[in-house]
Write a structure and sequence with these properties.
Elements lengths: L1 H7 L13 H12 L3 E7 L10 E6 L3 H19 L5 E3 L6 E5 L3 E6 L1 H7 L1 H4 L5 E4 L2
Parallel strand pairs: 2-5
Antiparallel strand pairs: 1-2, 1-6, 3-4, 4-5
């Protein structure tokens, strides 16, 4: 039973990510380096239904750029943070690529997909921060 109480108590050594976390900064810089646009982060920590602490969303001008940003994020996070994504999806069509690091989920979207799905509106109760391109 002791193990269950540890899971219930977030104050026992569990560190939550922030926008100052190394992995967060590495992802934002990777997107900026590959000229991603409309970069925003959504802080989902206070939303019970959320599957991650943060969503980072950006737009890319072409499917080639979508894939290039996704690949670069994975390379940079592996090199500087020694982390590999839990999962990635969408690289086949590269309209919307998702790179999942469990606590941070990155969405790289082609303009049409970004406009159609409007993730920022779906999660409008989450604090949003814009990041310069």
């Amino acid at each position: 039973m002791e193990q269950l109480s540890v899971l219930e108590s977030p104050s026992k050594g569990i560190t939550r990510l922030t926008r100052n976390s190394k992995i967060f900064k590495t992802i934002i810089k990777s997107i900026q380096d590959k000229k991603g646009s409309n970069i925003v982060s959504l802080d989902l920590k206070n939303i019970p239904e959320a599957v991650a602490d943060f969503f980072i969303i950006c737009q890319a001008a072409s499917t080639t750029q979508v894939r290039a940003i996704a690949d670069f994020i994975e390379d940079e996070v592996r090199e500087y943070c020694d982390e590999r994504p839990y999962k990635n999806e969408g690289k086949q069509t590269s309209q919307w690529v998702l790179v999942d690091y469990i606590s941070i989920v990155v969405h790289i979207m082609h303009p049409e997909a970004h406009q159609f799905y409007r993730l920022e509106d779906m999660w409008s109760d989450a604090p949003l921060q814009k990041h310069e391109s």
